[in-house]
Amino acid sequence: xxxxxxxxxxxxxxxxxxxxxxxxxxxxxxxxxxxxxxxxxxxxxxxxxxxxxxxxxxxxxxxxxxxxxxxxxxxxxxxxxxxxxxxxxxxxxxxxxxxxxxxxxxxxxxxxxxxxxxxxxxxxxxxxxxxxxxxxxxxxxxxxxxxxxxxxxxxxxxxxxxxxxxxxxxxxxxxxxxxxxxxxxxxxxxxxxxxxxxxxxxxxxxxxxxxxxxxxxxxxxxxxxxxxxxxxxxxxxxxxxxxxxxxxxxxxxxxxxxxxxxxxxxxxxxxxxxxxxxxxxxxxxxxxxxxxxxxxxxxxxxxxxxxxxxxxxxxxxxxxxxxxxxxxxxxxxxxxxxxxxxxxxxxxxxxxxxxxxxxxxxxxxxxxxxxxxxxxxxxxxxxxxxxxxxxxxxxxxxxxxxxxxxxxxxxxxxxxxxxxxxxxxxxxxxxxxxxxxxxxxxxxxxxxxxxxxxxxxx
Length: 458
What we know:
Elements: H1 77-92, H2 99-103, E1 109-114, E2 118-124, H3 127-133, E3 140-142, H4 145-154, E4 160-165, H5 167-179, E5 191-194, H6 201-212, E6 215-217, E7 228-234, E8 240-245, H7 256-263, E9 265-270, H8 281-293, E10 297-301, H9 305-310, H10 312-321, E11 325-329, H11 330-337, H12 345-352, E12 358-362, E13 368-372, E14 375-379, H13 392-405, H14 411-426, H15 435-447
Parallel strand pairs: 1-5, 1-9, 2-7, 3-8, 5-6, 9-10, 10-11, 11-12
Antiparallel strand pairs: 2-4, 7-8, 12-13, 13-14
Helix pairs in contact: 1-6, 5-13, 5-15, 7-8, 11-12, 13-14, 14-15
């Protein structure tokens, strides 16, 4: 199915600007919508479903925040250690780097992500380790400062890695690496993230790691704040146990700096995990309102089934009124629709596409679906040998966004690109798309723009 009826895009890579027309859809009768998505009494239908808008961007010289780039290199343990040392030096200084000042020279950002900024500590442990600390295997638990310290102290002597983690940052890093491939012949995409980190060394580490991946973290550190962390404990049976300490990452305020960033962005992505944080819903709503007024595309990631269930009405308030793109997996899509687990992902995709102009639903090894105007297009999965499925959905989302930003005009082609990006990540250990793989995918996509055959060349 071609996007010609739903979106207009320049077909050539040399064009200095591209037009992305809003994916339009006719809403179904209110009786077919989930309760939270039904129009309020006296309200008019969502105007953004009926008009077109333009997203423009121009080629600009590479202007990297702090002058650090990892183009042409892959992540390594040395990179992480360097970033930690850099974070420690930055955190120890009295004058913190003002990220927004260096970034202010840019007229617009192609993509701005709004999400949780968490540092991941990932380590291999045995079942006895979990029993000794009284941790239930395979669960996700929110811990306080003391509990986090107790676990980290117990991990002394264990082998573990630190990374600038989070679902949104995975997607933004992959998109930045796809968008900075010189071999593809496109102007570089300018990718940024806003969130909340503390003024501690971990906050500086987080910013440094994103800088190295060409993602600009633009929020100022919270003075005396503590950066959130997620401890990921993997046992020999490949089960993951996660302990989340939210710290400063649980706070988000919509101040004048963030409002200015939103007004200068072509695409705003809101991470679903933000919906379960205290006092963030109003900030999300204000960001979406300003993004909508400035003609930006708005994308929302579902993030987690339990998060959707706990924040169902808030999710639908934002998704039903503002979202142009919704990213979800099969279970999350069914949760949005309040459908039983026996219903197919295709049914959920069709259902959601009546309320959201473009819906992306992944279903693991079974493939994925893209929904527009009540129709669902099946995207077959590419052949791959899975090594680590963590981060597959994040990578898929980056592929969808990259295809749209580069002006692809065929939905199935965009879906195939997204599937290939996800497959590359699944075939490696870790959640990040590597630079060399991003170069290969972006170059191949450029040679086969709007062709369904590009994936076979990767």
